[in-house]
Amino acid sequence: MDRQLHGRLDELQRNPYPHYTRARTAEGLTFVPELDSWLVARDADVREVLRRPEDFSSANALRPDVMPAPAALAVLGGGFGGHPVVVTADGAHHQELRAPIVRGLSPARVAAVLPYAAERAAELVDTFADDGRVDLMSAYAARLPGDVIGRIVGLDPEDVPALVHGGHRAEELLFRPLEESEQIAAAEEVVAMQRLLDAFVRTRHADPREDLGTELISAVAVPETELTLDQRHQLVGHLQNLLIAGHLTTTALIGTTVLHLLRHPWQWELLCAEPERIPAAIEEAARHDTALQGFRRVTTRPVTLAGTELPAGAALLIAFGAANRDPARHARPDEFDITRTPVRHLAFGFGVHTCPGSQLAREQLRITLEQLTSRLPGLRLAEGTKVTMRPTLIHRSPERLELTW
After folding, report:
1. Predicted confidence (pLDDT) per residue in 16-31, tens digit
2. β pairing state of 37-40 and 315-319
3. What is the pTM assigned to this prediction?
4. What is the DSSP letter of 209?
5. Using CA atoms in the order 122, 126, 132, 136, what is the torsion angle rounded to 10 degrees?
6. Of 360, 365, 367, whose CA–CA distance to 106 is shortest?
7. pLDDT by residue (tens digit) across 341-366?
8. pLDDT of residue 323
9. Alpha carbon distance 58, 401 (integer Å)
10. In angstroms, rounded to a whole number, what is the distance separating the alpha carbons of residues 378 and 380?
11. Which residues contact 65 (CB under 8 A, 6 or more apart)?
């Protein structure tokens, strides 16, 4: 990808909404060179794709926006992975990979972790409550979700910061243009994360517990038998994908939710006065500025979508963020309004690939807003600071969120 195309990709990722509007109003589908994909932007079309996984495969869901250099790929070759994970699998294999995650994130498991999540959220707010100023992203949003998903998986709390950092580096490596030296450094940190996960897999296989990590391992390996190298590769890839989805998406959602509430002070004040509106505020924030803007799909045969004929092997970006602002489904779609009557949105997907961790994410948002509205009702965006969105369609959020009170 040349430098000019990199620049256009960066612009699109930081503010994709004008592109979505053009694509929704165009006849048929729009091909976007920066994404090397057909953009599916209308709510009805997105839902049609997600209803037909046999025609629109998830095999390319995590295809890099920017292919790493050969030297970085060589470093990654010394790590673990290479197997399909739940978001890139189809059919029976997808159901097989998804089943232990669904069990591990059951309503009972989520309920069991909520006291810890609430306690941890309060501890994090304690660290800055008396300071009068904070970057919410680094001090809170980037920390709570990793701690919570780590607790559910059964990770050693001392390992969680390194695993969260490795997840960020994996995202940068695959979705951001980096100089070759930086790609190599990122690849080395991803491999270090994978080795931590491999050690966890081997330890937990030898000593099963009541946690999601054990659920995943038991679905792949028979207890009291030695793990094969192939099983270790499969499990590390599975855990890496689960952890990245489990913390980066929720981190992003915390950031965008607080950002938009504070950009609309009357809505923040309303929420402080009427905290029973918190669930509706979460749904509106998820709809208005979706953390996971979209996933890729690839056609398995020639198909026609929105009047556009596509050959087998055509790449598409299924834009949840565009569908969630489709005026055909949502009134005043570009307005942020926590008092609107919620209409079912696509922020957590739809169909067989619906996010199994959506309830856990919502609960962490609820806890966060309860903490902030009750303890820091005077919260506001710091004057003179510009909020810049991260250049990604995978976990859209502010790079920093400077707040005062």
Report:
1. 999 999 999 999 999 9
2. parallel
3. 0.94
4. -
5. -50
6. 360
7. 888 999 999 999 999 999 999 999 99
8. 98
9. 33
10. 6
11. 9, 35, 174, 175, 176
Contact indicator for 106, 358 with CB cutoff of 8 Å: no
> What are the tens digits of pLDDT across the range 81-103?
888 889 999 999 999 999 989 98
The token pair at 164 is 């969260």
Per the listing, tokens 């208005």 go with 288
DSSP codes, 319-380: EHHHHTT-TTTSSSTTS--TTSPP----TT--GGG--TTHHHHHHHHHHHHHHHHHH-TT-E
Burial class (CB in 10 A: 0-12, 13-18, 19+), 169: buried
Ordered structural domains, the chain, with CATH: 3-404 (1.10.630.10)
Both tokens of 171, joined, read: 């995202």
CA distances (Å), origin 251, targets 136, 141, 362: 10, 5, 12
111 within 8 A of 359, measured Cβ to Cβ: no
The one-letter code for the residue type at 204 is R
- Kind of pairing between the strands at 294-299 and 56-57: antiparallel
d(CA 186, CA 71): 11
Burial pattern 11-35, b for ≥16 Cβ within 10 A else e, equals ebbeebeebbbebbeeeebbebebb
Taking phi over 0 as left and psi of -120 to 50 as alpha, with beta for the rest, 228 belongs to beta
Rounded Cα distance between 162 and 167, Å, is 9
Give me the mean pLDDT over the 290-311 stretch.
97
